[in-house]
Amino acid sequence: MKKRVFSGIKPSGNLHIGHYLGAIKQWVQMQDNYDNIFCIVDLHAITVPQDPKVLKAWTREITGLYLAAGIDPKQSIVFVQSHICAHAELAWILNCFIPMGWMQRMTQFKEKSQKLKEQVSTGLFDYPALMAADILLYDTDVVPVGEDQKQHVELARDVAQRFNSIYGETFKLPEPVIPKVGARIMGLDDPTRKMDKSETAPGHAINLLDPPDVIRSKLMRATTDSLKEIRFDGNRPGVYNLLVIYELFSGKSRQEIEAHFDGKGYAALKKELGDVVVEGLRPLQERYRKLTADPSHIDSILADGADRARPMAEKTLALVKERVGLG
Ligand code: AQP
Question: Considering Cα of 257, then 258, then 263, then 268, what sign does the dihedral take?
Fold first, then answer.
């Protein structure tokens, strides 16, 4: 029996290279060795305001990008979270087992609520309960995520343990898997902050569907520092971030990269980085255009994915309701 992977992305903006290097690339690499479920988590997206038409369009765009990046819908289940009611239903039940103190410790809520102030929704606070439901419904073993999501996966594990200790073995305990390199790709304009899809500053992120000239010009404007040497030095966040992106797209070792750029300046680094990123994204962009030429193709993949995932989710939910005494 293969171990099960569950992961997802919110359709709340353009996917960027942080999503690719921190999440999707890992999913593709792990695909053959695991039993995979990849979700487009639209219920999570509405924790902040969304335009309904744009939300639907992003849901389909992200599905196309999963497939273009190499997720095979025959091998892996790909579906939309809101197509399976069990996610919202289990989230409500888990809410009743998660102490407020656990939720109040979640750093992502603290950061996001500072920006939104009194407009912040209860749904955003409750985000980790819904994410725990997503993971626990499918007997998930492994959750590949970027560093920012580790705390949420740990909460899913804690609530599973708590529920199991009250009602007996019900949920499998999931483990987060964080990539060694690329777990936190930083903004090009401000390398002290995570590359973020809700950040709209034009030089912040390289989106997966950006044309080559846009990619090159964003990189040429990326923040560096006033030093000269091109080295993997975590204390120089701008240059370090560019080198990590270069490392992940080129597949070269850090030693090779430092030797290659020895004596060269930042303009050369940015230019060559532009070349590797453009070439790295070219096949994905070409596949995306082919896959989305017929929009009904994406919809039929999502319908099939929901049909395959639903019985698993409903089985877990029925067991939970029985244990709790509902119905
Ligand atoms: N910059 C990043 N570096 C590495 N991994 C990243 N991920 C996101 N940004 C980076 C990983 O991608 C997966 C899906 O992310 P998500 O959609 O759940 O949330 P997000 O994109 O991280 O949300 P944002 O950027 O904060 O956008 P909004 O403002 O729309 O909510 C996760 O595994 C994440 O770690």
Answer: positive
Q: What is the pLDDT of residues 163-215, one digit of tens each?
A: 999 999 999 999 999 888 778 999 999 999 999 998 889 999 999 999 999 99
Note the pLDDT of residue 152. 97
Residues having CB within 6 Å of any atom of ligand 1: 9-10, 12-13, 18-19, 22-23, 145-146, 148-149, 183-185, 194-198
Neighbouring C-beta atoms of residue 101, cutoff 10 Å: 7
96 and 160 share one domain: yes
**Both 245 and 310 in a single domain?**
no
| DSSP output for 171-221 | SPPPEEE--SSSSSPBPSS-TTSB--TT---TTS--BTT--HHHHHHHHHT
Domain that holds residue 243: 212-289
What is the mean pLDDT of the segment spanning 150-165?
98
SS3 80: strand
Q: What CATH number has the domain bearing residue 64?
A: 3.40.50.620
In degrees and rounded to multiples of 5, residue 193 shows phi and psi of -120, 145
CATH number of the domain bearing residue 253: 1.10.240.10
- Residue 146's pLDDT is what? 82
